Amino acid sequence: MVAEWFRQLKESANVNLTIFYDRFDGLTYLNGLATTVKLSAACLALSVVFGIGGAWLQRSGWAPLRWLVNGYVAFFRNTPPLAQLYFFYFGVGSIMPLIPDGAGGTHRLFDNFQWAVISMSLFAGAFNVEIFRAGIEAVPKATTDAAEALGYSRFGAYIHIVLPLAFRISLPALNNNLVTMVKGTTIAYAIGVPELLTASATIWNASTNIPEMMNVLMITFLALVGILVVAMHRIERALHIPGYNR
Amino acid sequence: MAAGGTMSGISGDAVVSLRDVHKSFGATEVLGGISMDVGRGDVVCIIGPSGSGKSTLLRCINALVPVDRGEIVVAGMTVTSPTLDKLALRRKVGIVFQQYNLFPHKTALQNVMMAPIHVLKRDRREVEELARQLMRKVRLSGKEACYPGELSGGQQQRVAIARSLAMKPEVMMFDEVTAALDPETVKEVLTTIRELAEDGMTCMLVTHEMGFAREIADRVYFTDRGVIVEHGPPKELFGSPRDPRTREFLEHVL
Questions:
Q1: What is the pLDDT of residue B4?
Q2: Chain B: nearest CA to A133, how far in angstroms?
Q3: Can you give the residue range of the structural domain that contains A105?
Q4: How far is A168 from chain B (nearest CA, A)?
Q5: Of B6, B115, B180, B214, which sits most exposed with the smallest number of CB within 10 A?
Q6: Residue B57: closest CA among B21, B82, B86
Q7: Residues A207, A25 contacting (CB under 8 angstroms)
Q8: Is residue B1 part of a domain?
Q9: Is residue B180 assigned to a domain?
Q10: Is the pLDDT of residue A224 over 70?
Q11: Who contacts A2 (Cβ-Cβ below 8 Å, separation ≥6)?
Q12: Any A CB within 8 A of B86 CB
């Protein structure tokens, strides 16, 4: 019935939304949506892990470890994300070992989806390191002194006191970066990951409905990022400390 | 190193002993050779002008600040030894700070419970019982579920005291704990400290509350520019100070 309505829409108004009545286009788009969601979720989780880990290592007493983190941040913050993606997929990817697929052929250690996750997580993670660093530095020295005086080790104080506070302080900046990251997943188009932009391009090339699909793509991202923003605000509210920062 | 023979001058029953402790921050000498003994159950007050090294002294005793020279022994542990077990030391010595320094993301009760659970790995239920008991002791029953930001300064400071007590220390140190409080709430914190002292807790207080020092202390130390100028029972030190620097200071603050 819905499909019929959209078919009519094409006839009467010349608005050709094939994804609603053409099974192939519909599946292509759904697959794109699922890929974008998976890509975003993986990058979201990994980039936060990289951020927290990097911010912890950045405070290490061992200088080479700090240099390593600073080098990582500098590299990923100061170079274009698309170039990074190419660097990993075509550069690093081509020297990865070949793995037999059991059917006589071989494939590389990581496929394009995995490289997209690695590359974009490292990129967003570099920004997260700086975001968490700022949060950690905003935790008063007096608070960590108190933890130390109670016998907490540096790691114990980080886990139980510094991180929970720093995370709250970092949330607004983290939200911004994660929104940027989710939108940025579209660059995976460049290495053929079948995410939303790739799916849309496939559809508009085949069905020559470029304006319609452009709009669909934009509205989809508007909704996706909207969901992310609502979720992050929920987290912010849930982590709100009564009476804090009055 | 065992207490006794080789450690000349450090009396056997002292819980805290300092011998010729020196500490400089850059070119500024903050402690210029401090020696003192605090016996079990003693209440010792350290007074003196700002910047005379009083807070640094307390921070050296629980190894928050390393000393340059001299020896500190707390409950049989040599704090100044390079092999010091800091965790063991901090179980023996509690410190309460001027700015309370509570963990703002945890309720009052959780603040008291955290360290015994995380650091001492004690059973949660057992610790909760102890924490509730301590909340009663500092007269904060009913405030267990409040976050630090919802409590007054005096209440926060009493939670901080309970938090330190939960580690069952042998010595409690108070670093100008009433300096940031409203005059009305100073009293409730001092009452808590007084009760602790009456229970026989060894207490070291850095304070500007001269009336309180006079009332509660067994011994008062007057420090100026990193050295102990004079010390004695409060009656003597406040009543008939020998050193002109002590006299001058007391004239200003009393």
A1: 38
A2: 19
A3: 2-222
A4: 10
A5: B6
A6: B21
A7: yes
A8: no
A9: yes
A10: yes
A11: A20, A21
A12: yes
DSSP chain B: --SSTTSTT--TTEEEEEEEEEEEETTEEEEEEEEEEEETT-EEEEE-STTSSHHHHHHHHTTSS--SEEEEEETTEETTSTT--HHHHHHHEEEE-TT----TTS-HHHHHHHHHHHTT---HHHHHHHHHHHHHHTT-TT-TT--GGGS-HHHHHHHHHHHHHTT--SEEEEESTTTTS-HHHHHHHHHHHHHHHHTT-EEEEE-S-HHHHHHH-SEEEEEETTEEEEEE-HHHHHHS--SHHHHHHHHHH-
Model ipTM value: 0.85
- In this model, does residue B11 exceed pLDDT 70? no
What total number of domains does chain B contain? 1
Domain annotation covers residue A240: no
B167 contacts in chain A (CB < 8 Å): 150-151
Size of interface A-B (CB pairs under 8 A): 74
Q: Does B104 touch chain A (CB under 8 A)?
A: yes
Is the residue at A228 inside a domain?
no
Contact A244 B90 (CB under 8 A): no
CA-based torsion, A190, A192, A197, A201: positive or negative: positive
How far apart, in Å, do the first and last CA atoms of chain B sit? Answer: 43
Domain around B207: 14-253
Domain with residue A22: its CATH number is 1.10.3720.10
Q: What is the mean pLDDT of chain B?
A: 90
Does A232 fall in a domain? no
What is the C-alpha to C-alpha distance for residues B196 and A75, in angstroms, rounded to an integer? 57
Mean pLDDT of B43-72: 92
Torsion of CA A229, A233, A236, A242, to 10 degrees: 170
DSSP tag of A87: I
pLDDT > 50? residue B36 = yes
Q: What is the 3-state secondary structure (H, E, C) of B205-219?
A: EECCCHHHHHHHCCE
The number of distinct structural domains making up chain A is 1
Determine whether the interchain pair B97/A153 forms a contact, defined as Cβ–Cβ distance below 8 Å: no
Q: What is the CATH number of the domain that holds B146?
A: 3.40.50.300
Look at residue B5 and tell me if it is in a domain: no
**Residue A149, pLDDT above cutoff 70:** yes
In a domain, A241, yes or no: no
- A94: number of Cβ within 10 Å: 8
Q: Please tell me if residue A241 touches chain B, with a CB cutoff of 8 Å.
A: yes
Sign of CA dihedral B174, B176, B181, B182: positive
Interface residue B210 vs chain A (CB under 8 A): no
Please indicate whether, in this complex, the C-beta atoms of A153 and B87 are within 8 angstroms of each other: yes
**Residue B250 burial (CB < 10 Å; 0-12/13-18/19+)?**
middle
A145 touches chain B (CB under 8 A): yes
In a domain, B4, yes or no: no
The answer on pLDDT for B10 being more than 50 is no
pTM of the model: 0.80
